[in-house]
Specification:
Blueprint lengths: L2 E6 L4 H12 L6 E8 L2 E8 L2 H8 L8 E7 L14 E2 L5 E6 L5 H10 L10 H14 L7 H11 L6 E7 L6 E6 L4 E4 L4 E4 L11 E4 L4 E5 L4 E5 L5 E2 L4 E2 L15 H7 L1 H9 L19 H6 L2 E6 L1 H17 L4 E5 H7 L7 E7 L5 H12 L4 E5 L5 H5 L2 E4 L12 H19 L5 H22 L2 H11 L4 E6 L3 H16 L2 E6 L17 E5 L5 H13 L4 E6 L11 E5 L7 H19 L18
Parallel strand pairs: 16-17, 16-18, 18-19, 19-20, 21-22, 21-23, 23-24, 24-25
Antiparallel strand pairs: 1-4, 1-10, 2-3, 2-4, 5-6, 6-7, 7-8, 8-12, 9-10, 9-11, 11-15, 12-13, 13-14
């Protein structure tokens, strides 16, 4: 949460920062601001609302500064006001800071600093830190050495409890930025005669593809031509590892689509093709994963899997649980990462832990990983963002390769997690009792996924018409059984997060144990009723809905027959292998939610109160 951009180089810093902020705006959009350093003084502009509001403030100004920092905020401490927007200045005017994270001991810090004469303009925790830096700077001997700025930041950070990704400017060191991280992402873009700091690769790929991922506890000092990396605690110099990012600027651009969510829904055939590319065995009977760092022998010793994740990724784990238990016969537990960390669940010796995350930065998931590792368990990650903290801290894992996901509501990352889960079930199944011919059939099914998704996507106009018909309702139920239950949860989550309509996902057979009380003409049900052995029971449940004057939007299989009038609306899926059914069934509920939200004029890509990548607890 919160987007950070810092620039030092020869170009106009304000333009580069604004472009970067637009690209990281999905990390938080309560307010945006920038500070540029010119002729020994800061100009700070900040405004509540979107980056566009900031652009309007900057437009009439003639900035020539070549050093600056900018921020998009997802509010934690202090309301959404101009005063609380970042950057914040120290009260002596010498420092400007942008911060992503939470400083837990800021109250004590503020009291200490107030006693030393420092004053505060905002309600934020961040302002305490920038003043603490100023305090240490004032205490450092002025020896003309560049390191005075760096040392002041480092000393201040030694007193911080909490999390931070920061970038700091100092009026006395006009062509320098100091950045540091603990618990919040920070990436250095190494450019040609310029260096950039950002919370997210997307903010810097237009300038460079050479990056250094800072680790927790590291501080970086940059000028236009050089940078140095060291540890905050021990002050040890670190030799940086420069990675090359494969993303291109176009990957994160909207093209002809109205919203990133729409683009990402329609991108799924290609994204899932990328997820699977090169990951089937030569005899096409199993999956292969290069990065598990465990041998087949190691994996045969495993007798339990624990999956930890949050939100949409947690739903993907529920599907993986069903497939792995069915095809590999290994018991699986799925935990909310936020609960796992504090639950102190007893784990057996031969347990393997998976964390699943699009961003690779979700703090709850990261802390679950750390907790499991602390207890000595091997932790593998299923993650989309290459080089993210979770990717780097795990013992191995599987990259999703779904490409950048910009829409706050996860779509293609979710289906690519479903694909990875299905491939994992196949791989583990083939290490145990799944036969060669069953493996071949399974692989054939997975390879069909992109084409079958394309076929489901052709129903977009029909789903749009359904969305129009039902968009005025304020409550929805999503019901499904077996592997359709997690998709019901996901459908309900998608609808509520982008349209602000109340929606609940439930196992279809549980309806009669309570939620049936909600059924009325005003509360439509999205009902997953694919062909298969459960079909007659599913039809009975829909009949119970109709008997209570409920309306049913039924997602089913082409050719499935219902009694006349049972389905108010019907969306067909092509017949398919059961391992890929959850992937195909996701597409209609993504489209339905998207079109309802668009019909209601919601801000689809940046729904209220949310942010992509939740890096606070
Ligand atoms: C919902 C959504 C969130 C995320 C959750 C975990 O559409 O995007 O529920 O799935 O915050 O995020 P990651 O996968 O980045 O760990």
């Amino acid at each position: 949460m919160c987007g950070i951009v810092g620039y030092v180089g020869k170009q106009k810093a304000s333009s580069i920062i604004l472009e970067g902020l637009k690209r990281v705006e999905y990390r938080g959009y309560d307010s945006a601001g920038l500070a540029v350093l010119e002729k020994g003084a800061f100009t700070v502009l900040k405004k509540t609302g979107r980056v566009d509001n900031l652009v309007k403030l900057v437009a009439p100004r003639k900035f020539h500064a070549t050093t600056g920092i900018g921020h998009t905020r997802w509010a934690t401490h202090g309301g959404v006001t101009d005063a609380n927007a970042h950057p914040h200045l120290s009260s002596d005017g010498k420092f400007a800071i942008i911060h992503n994270g939470v400083i837990e001991n800021y109250v004590g810090m503020k009291q200490f600093l107030a006693g030393k004469g420092y004053t505060f303009q905002s309600e934020t925790d961040t302002e305490a830190l920038v003043n603490l830096i100023a305090y240490h700077f004032a205490k450092e001997p002025a020896n003309g050495d560049r390191s005075r700025f760096l040392e002041s930041v480092r000393k201040a950070l030694l007193h911080v409890e909490g999390t931070y990704g920061i970038a700091v400017l100092c009026t006395e060191c006009p062509d320098e930025i100091v950045g540091a991280r603990k618990g919040s992402p920070l990436i250095l873009g190494v450019g040609d005669g310029e260096n950039i700091l950002a919370s997210d690769v997307s903010a810097l790929v237009s300038r460079t593809q050479n990056v250094v991922y800072l680790k927790d506890g590291e501080v970086v000092h940059l000028t236009e031509k050089s940078f140095s990396l060291s540890t905050i605690q021990e002050q040890e110099e670190i030799t940086p590892k420069i990675d090359r990012v494969s993303w291109k600027v176009e990957d994160a651009e909207l093209g002809t689509f109205a919203h990133f969510m729409e683009k990402e829904i329609f991108e799924q055939p290609a994204a899932l093709e990328n997820t699977m590319r090169g990951r089937f065995s030569a005899d096409a009977s199993t999956a292969i994963f290069g990065g598990l760092n465990l041998t087949a022998g190691d994996l045969r010793q495993i007798d339990r899997l624990v999956f930890c994740a949050c939100g949409t990724a947690w739903h993907a784990c529920l599907v993986a649980e069903q497939l792995i238990e069915r095809y590999a016969r290994i018991p699986v537990e799925v935990e909310y990462a936020s609960e796992f960390r504090y639950r102190n669940a007893p784990l057996d010796k031969n347990t393997l832990v998976f964390v699943v995350t699009q961003s690779g930065e979700t703090l709850d998931t990261l802390e679950a990983l750390r907790e499991a590792k602390r207890k000595g368990y091997t932790v593998l990650a299923i993650v989309n963002v290459v080089g993210s903290t979770i990717a780097r801290e795990s013992d191995g894992g599987i990259y999703q390769h779904a490409g950048p996901e910009i829409g706050v509501a996860s779509t293609k990352a979710f289906t690519s997690q479903l694909v990875v889960g299905a491939m994992l079930a196949l791989y583990l199944g083939r290490l145990r009792d799944m036969s060669y011919s069953d493996g071949v059939e399974y692989v054939k099914a997975l390879k069909q996924v992109p084409e079958l998704i394309k076929a489901v996507l052709t129903q977009a106009p029909h789903i749009k018409a359904i969305a129009k018909r039902f968009s005025h309702h304020r409550d929805f139920l999503f019901l499904g059984r077996q592997s359709m239950f997690p998709i019901a949860l996901e459908g309900a989550l998608k609808l509520k997060e982008i349209s602000y309509i109340h929606a609940e996902g439930y196992p279809a057979a549980e309806m009669k144990h309570g939620p049936i009380a909600l059924i009325s003409p005003d509360c439509p049900t999205v009902f997953f009723a694919p062909a298969g052995e459960m079909f007659p029971k599913l039809v009975s449940s829909i009949q119970e809905i109709k008997a209570r004057k409920g309306q049913a939007i039924v997602i089913t299989t082409t050719g499935a027959e219902f009694p006349p009038g049972l389905a108010d609306e019907r969306i067909d899926l092509p017949p398919c292998h059961e391992a890929i059914l959850p992937i195909l069934a996701t597409i209609p509920v993504q489209l339905l939610s998207y079109y309802i939200a668009a019909e209601l004029g919601r801000d689809v890509d940046k729904p209220r109160n949310l942010a992509k990548s939740v890096t606070v607890e």
